[in-house]
Amino acid sequence: MDYLINKMEVNILKNKISYLFYYAAATSLFCVLLLLVLLTQDKKVIVTPPDIKQNFWVSDHAVSESYLTQMSDFFLTLALDKTPGNAKYQTQSLLKYVDPNLFNTLKQKMSAEDDRIIKENITTSFFPVKQRVWYKKMRVEVTGDFVSRIGDKVMPTQRISYFIQYSYRQGYLHITQFYHASST
């Protein structure tokens, strides 16, 4: 009799262990599926910093058009609004966003400009007047008035178009090209 009771208890325990095993396997499978869904989702984050005028979004794989235009304004401020006191800081801040393939070339060019700004006591400013965006190509053209002063002498205003080409990889916006063409 004890043998039959023990055998029944063993069968009951086997059934309970089987149910627990299936429950654990189902729970693990559910967790894996949930993790896959979360990792493959393309999330958009709405960002509105205080000094930005429009909402824009940034996702894992893309950015909005307004993000490109506002970042272009920011980058042009770093590149073109300079004094002898802030030139090197502005350049270092801008270089954080430059693609590694362009980094050394742009660093050398901008460092030489910064040395000239300091040596000749130059102050520069850029006032944007219009923008064109090629969203799918991640390219922005900003046209504006470039004003400079050498010492106490104000130089003639120049209308210049700046072109910025971007790449967006792994959640980071990089400048891949940065150049200008005089309009007048």
Examine the secondary-structure arrangement and name the CATH architecture of the largest domain: Roll
Shape descriptor reads rod-shaped
Overall number of strands: 7
Mean residue pLDDT: 84
Q: What name does CATH use for the topology of the largest domain?
A: Nuclear Transport Factor 2, Chain: A
Ends apart, CA distance between termini = 107 Å
Helix content: 40-55%
> Mind telling me the C-alpha Rg?
30 Å
Low-pLDDT parts are: 45-50
What structural class do helix, strand and pairing data support? alpha+beta
CATH class category name of the largest domain? Alpha Beta
What would you say about this model in short?
This protein has 184 residues and is an alpha+beta fold.
Keywords:
alpha+beta, Nuclear Transport Factor 2, Chain: A, two-stranded antiparallel ribbon, about 45% helix, 7 strands, about 30% strand, single chain, about 180 residues, 4 helices
Report on the structure:
- With 184 residues, the chain is an alpha+beta fold.
- It folds into two domains: 1-41; 44-182, Roll (Nuclear Transport Factor 2, Chain: A).
- Helices cover 46% and strands 32% of the residues.
- Strands 3, 4, 5, 6 and 7 form a five-stranded antiparallel sheet that branches.
- A hairpin with a 2-residue loop joins strand 6 (158-169) and strand 7 (172-182).
- Helix 2 (65-80) packs antiparallel against helix 3 (87-95) and helix 3 runs antiparallel to helix 4.
